[in-house]
Amino acid sequence: MSVKDADKIDAIGIEEDTNTLVFLIADPYQWVIQEYEHLKAFQTKINNYVHFIESGQYKEKYPDRSFDGFRIEAVFSYKWSDAGESFFAAGKKQLAERGIDFTYTLREAKK
Question: Could you say which residues of the chain have pLDDT below 70?
Answer without folding.
Answer: 1-5, 33, 109-111
